[in-house]
């Protein structure tokens, strides 16, 4: 007796991945890679800033057109979502508070934690996504039921520093397609598959400021409070427009032309005395006031969900910096931890992030307070 015909098992439907697309080459190639890997891919363009839609520095309209063009070319659906209200409340307001207090925040770190991996993640899940993806250069490894954030293979493009505040929940369903390949390969892929933005210039600077003059932008939102500029020995050499407009290690835009003591070295912002509204400057890149062997950090965030054991690690105190060997010690409130470095660090800046690493594993970090 013949057996009845049995229907073949239907192929398993690919997981649905919603990827953040900016119009740049990185997220475009990441979307293409996911499609090639068999995922059901949906592109999502996030509009996070709308104060300058008609400004010469705002590229949102062109970026959206680039996203639509890429999505059409690789054959995926795409939509735009406006997170401007969330961005202003969660990121920009904090950015202004920190600058007004004399610190130098990193809004891209906050944007990742609050917008790209929170508001965006929530929206993606409402679309039925199984996972989200971005064009960041980083990797995620799942081990013993925990998610680890790893540096990208391309050390020159690694962006784990900006992602260090992500939580286990946020990393649980995140894909970083570019983490395993170098940036040069990304450009080659884009050209090979015919993406029109293959040679598009990478975006730089703070996301909502773009290429515009930073001081000009900040002056719209913060008042000028002039005060004295003094040298490290207390000599008054000029007047500043407001401490909020300067950051430690800054060399350009101080307003001091020429040498004050004949040595010809450049001037750098060395300290900000908020109580007396005084800006201190020092001559020479290696001036002792610009070097520190130790820092304290607050508002710590650890990717594993728990504080690492005290001991030997490496850390970055700014993005464009090689890892530096350090010793982690756990602090007492309000200081969460302190780091002691084997070699002096240059221009350690309150408000910036101190990010801790164990080899290629990004452990998390905190906000430099002193």
Written account of the structure:
The protein is of the alpha/beta class and 370 residues long. The chain has seven helices and 17 strands. It has helices spanning 25-36, 60-74, 84-100, 107-126, 168-171, 183-192, 214-218; strands spanning 16-20, 40-47, 77-82, 131-133, 138-143, 146-151, 174-175, 227-231, 236-240, 267-273, 278-283, 291-302, 311-316, 324-330, 337-346, 353-358, 361-368. The strands form three sheets. Strands 12-15-14-13-16-17 form a six-stranded antiparallel β-barrel. A five-stranded parallel sheet has the order 3-2-1-4-7, sandwiched between helices. Helix 1 (25-36) packs parallel to helix 2, helix 1 (25-36) crosses helix 6 and helix 3 (84-100) packs antiparallel against helix 4 (107-126). The longest helix has 20 residues, at 107-126.
Layout: helices, strands, pairs:
Blueprint: E1 16-20, H1 25-36, E2 40-47, H2 60-74, E3 77-82, H3 84-100, H4 107-126, E4 131-133, E5 138-143, E6 146-151, H5 168-171, E7 174-175, H6 183-192, H7 214-218, E8 227-231, E9 236-240, E10 267-273, E11 278-283, E12 291-302, E13 311-316, E14 324-330, E15 337-346, E16 353-358, E17 361-368
Parallel strand pairs: 1-2, 1-4, 2-3, 4-7, 8-11
Antiparallel strand pairs: 5-6, 6-17, 8-9, 10-11, 12-15, 12-17, 13-14, 13-16, 14-15, 16-17
Helix pairs in contact: 1-2, 1-6, 3-4
């Amino acid at each position: 007796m013949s057996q009845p015909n049995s229907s073949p098992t239907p192929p398993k439907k690919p997981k649905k991945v919603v990827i953040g697309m900016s119009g740049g080459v990185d997220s475009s190639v990441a979307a293409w890679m996911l499609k090639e890997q068999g995922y059901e891919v949906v592109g999502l363009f996030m509009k996070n800033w709308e104060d300058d839609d008609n400004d010469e520095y705002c590229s949102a309209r062109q970026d959206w057109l680039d996203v639509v063009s890429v999505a059409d070319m690789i054959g995926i659906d795409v939509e735009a979502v406006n997170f401007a209200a969330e961005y202003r409340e969660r990121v920009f307001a904090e950015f202004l508070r920190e600058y007004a207090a004399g610190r130098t925040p990193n809004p891209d770190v906050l944007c990742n934690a609050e917008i790209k991996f929170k508001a965006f993640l929530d929206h993606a899940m409402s679309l039925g996504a199984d996972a989200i993806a971005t064009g960041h250069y980083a990797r995620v490894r799942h081990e013993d039921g925990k998610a680890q954030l790893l540096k990208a293979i391309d050390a020159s493009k690694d962006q784990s520093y900006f992602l260090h505040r992500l939580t286990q929940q946020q990393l649980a369903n995140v894909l970083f397609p570019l983490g395993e390949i170098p940036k040069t390969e990304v450009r080659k892929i884009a050209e090979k598959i015919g993406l029109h933005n293959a040679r598009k210039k990478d975006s730089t600077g703070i996301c909502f400021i773009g290429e515009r003059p930073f001081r000009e932008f900040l002056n719209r939102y913060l008042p000028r409070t002039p005060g004295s500029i003094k040298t490290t020995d207390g000599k008054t050499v000029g007047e500043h427009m407001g401490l909020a407009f300067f950051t430690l290690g800054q060399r350009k835009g101080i307003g001091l032309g020429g040498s004050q003591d004949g040595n010809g070295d450049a001037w750098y912002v060395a300290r900000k005395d908020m109580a007396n509204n005084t800006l201190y400057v020092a001559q020479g890149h290696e001036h002792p006031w610009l070097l520190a062997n130790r820092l304290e950090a607050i508002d710590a965030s650890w990717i594993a969900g728990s504080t690492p054991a005290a001991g030997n690690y490496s850390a970055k105190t700014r993005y464009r910096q090689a890892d530096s060997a350090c010793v982690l010690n756990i602090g007492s409130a309000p200081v969460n931890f302190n780091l002691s470095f084997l070699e002096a660090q240059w221009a350690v800046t309150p408000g910036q992030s101190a990010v801790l690493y164990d080899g290629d594993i990004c452990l998390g970090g905190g906000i430099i307070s002193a």
